[in-house]
Amino acid sequence: MTGNAALAQLMDMGIPIGRAKAALQRSKGDAMTAAERVFSGEFDDIPSDDEDDGDQRTGLQTPEEGSSSRATAAAAMSDDEEDGYDDILMDDDEDDGGYDDFHFEDDGEHAPQDVDPYAGIFFSKDRTEHLIETVPRPVFLDMPLSSGAAGGPSVRKERVRILSRGEWMSGCPEGNEQSFLFQLYELLAEGALPCANGCGHKFPRSPEQFFALFSSFPAYTAHLADLIEVRCPDCDHMTCRACGELVNVGSNGKGKGKTHRWSINADGEIESLLHCLNLQGVIIGVGLHMIEEGFSAVPAPPTPEKDEAHPPKKRKVKKLISKFVLGGNDDEMSDSDASESDSPAFFGGGTGRGRSSAKGTGYSGTQNEDRSGQIAAERAQALNDSKTATLLSQVQVYLPALNRRSGPRASDHLVHPTALAHLRRRSGFVNDLLRNDSLMDMSNRGTLYRALFDWLEIVSSHESLASMLAMPQMRPMRTEPGPDRDSVSVVYEGGPSPRELLESVVIQATSALKGLTATAAKEEEKAVDLTQSVNALDIVQPPVVVDEEDQNGSLQAFCERIVQSAATIDRLLIDTKGEEFVKRMRETLPRLHTAVEVQESADATNDAIIKIYEEWARKVRFQYTDLINPNDPGKENYFHCYNEQIKKLVGMDAPKRSLAIAKELAILTTSLPSAWHSSIFLRVDDARVDCIKAMIIGPEGTPYENGCFIFDIFLPLEYNIKCPSVKSMTTNGGKYRYNPNLYNDGKVCLSLLGTWSGPGWVSGKSTLLQVLISIQSLILSEEPYLNEPGWANQAGTTASKQYSANVRRMVIEDAMGNNLANPPFPFENEIKTHFRLKADVIRAQLDRWKAIDDGKVTSFDSYSSVQQTIAATSQDGGSRGGTFDTTSKRLRGLLDALKPPPPTPASAAAVAAVKRTNPFRGAKKGGK
């Protein structure tokens, strides 16, 4: 039976018995591998069983090769042959460690499938393929719309485009996929279909029968349901147009009347469309084309004559935004959705490095913001999401599913090769959606993402499909005119697998779950009487609204489903690919790190150091930690300037606040900048997720470059209706005012925080990420002098240059020197690693800064008059610091202790001279 099942599967594809048996023996019983070998021509030397009658088989399920294939397979072998054939397969299986149960019985139980059809193919994210693809002229026809279950076409018509053979076969091919795709299209779109009863009647075939792209998927399936079972006018028997088999509609296979009637069950299935493998292949292929077009809103492939904007250009712009504004990389930032509310424009202006002041940090902003465009875009997005989600749910009905509620069909067990090819090639929408690393946006677009996870669960639950989720995807990245007018040159590049992208979403979901549950659970353990706390503070806790609790529950269920989907995929991958494969895969997945050891070689190049630094920063940028004051663990005082406010809210929370914090944490886990030129590190208390500390590395090209700036952040009870509380902790003990918007008492002036004029905090929309990046890009700017009201037009003036020189001296002494000498909790490791990896760069930076220093001592008064402060040349020691030379010398000593400087050319030459004069110096012991 084991041999029969595999042999029958190959015969269902139209492979002659002799070739099928030889291919199975060489492929160790793997039917899919055997099929690929046959269609690649490996067994063409074995004569076809039907060559005598001149009727060549196509390699797919054809009319003459239908339901009798299993009986033929059994009859083709004597008992002795069958036993011997099974012995061969079993021997091969024992050698290979396992394919001992690759058949299935039609007893309703879901036996294992003979699994991964791509097992022998190497997939890589670094792969690039250049392909020539045909672009035929579009063909449109007026097709009658189905009248529904009543049967037959209606008088209404729709103009539809016919999917061409070139489009059907487009994509980066693997193995023998192109052969299967070509054969199925040829079988269903050309020639004639003979009556399954053998009466001699033939039904003409044409492309519009199976490859018409209707405006909706239900219209397409209704069209198929009307024509799939055709009644022979000569013998009254019913034939399946897809596979050519008899359809048992009436007694003896004869039709009950002239009008074919069909129905849709509760799961959205049309029974007649689950009949055979060929139907599965064409429905999934056409359905995925519809999803692809609907998702991208591109009605047809690009024509070679037009010089249209190619997708890579769009991707490049997003990459630049990610890299230089948010400091992320391609894999971390969303290619499909970096929402407008997270963009710099929402902060109120540019980066603060131009020739005018940064909006949102001065008085040049406006109080009100026109969000009409954003609202209109959100409505359009919601409408498109709803359509795409509906399409996903409609197509997924016909995906292979062993747990189909109406009972599994043969096509659920034996997946058609073209269905596999299309699922591999046309699932780019999965990656595009998973690249959106904003859980807030995902939850807001919940309709679409719930449909996506329904889809992933079905794919991951089938052993023949699950491994695709771990494959790097080949995506079309560039399209150019081809060698002629009817072709294009397409460049495909490897990208992350869906499972890799899903892991970033899992990290966000896990953080969101922690944000939803941590406060309530931990605060019960810390037990203070809630009533007494509320009365003592005279605070009225916001009333609990049922809708808010529902939102929390919905987000929690959404996040739990994400985590469960990933676990299911991994479990099935273990079943199909083995534990070692999954172990190696997991080692490459992103994750939250608790401790990271950084090792760089002494001779590492600058590029290597940059790569090491950015990888380290990405791993440690977000961590949960215990922010209880380590010097006072018993009293549970937080090492935080908002300690009293944090303690007052013990046991108090509002559902809406929990929801907002959960979404914030989900975003922050994967969206914080982690770049060589500037990074942001965040530490969140394990028990109190509203207690946060941040460290921003001063951006390259500014007076703050490579300085470490610490901020304490507290999310109040009204968050995110109200903005967070933020205070700067890098002030040299309350002495230094680093910026017109960073006071020596720690006050941070920013319109988002309500402490400055300009676009303010938008309830329910603004985020902590916006605040952090605003500080990084708008306050820690190239010319901080311009942030002072009234001085926005003084770029490049002497006063501005003197101000920047003074800031540089502050940074050297405090943000660098003091922080390196006594690293503040909890960033000790991050500060030391930052300065160690950048030691040589900072030494060169000090040399550059020395060349443009004005020779004055550091001024650090209360900034009552910037100009007087800069111009002062003699003040008492209480309001003035050291010179550039004294502060930089101290910093160099700290850097040398952390990482000795490389030898200078002069010292290297001296060492070489010593070696030349003393031949024994440096020689190995025992050498001659």
UniProtKB/TrEMBL annotation:
Annotated protein name in UniProt: Baculoviral IAP repeat-containing protein 6
Q: Which SUPFAM superfamilies match?
A: UBA-like, UBC-like
Identify the gene encoding this protein: Birc6_1
Keywords, comma-separated and alphabetical: Transferase, Ubl conjugation pathway
Q: Which species is this UniProt entry from?
A: Vanrija pseudolonga
Q: Does the keyword Transcription regulation apply?
A: no
- Which CDD domains has this protein been placed in? UBCc_BIRC6 (cd23810)
- Compositional bias, Acidic residues, is annotated for 42-54, 78-108, 329-340
The UniProt regions of compositional bias labelled Low complexity, in chain numbering, are 64-77
GO MF annotation, one: ubiquitin conjugating enzyme activity
Positions of region (Disordered):
38-115, 328-373
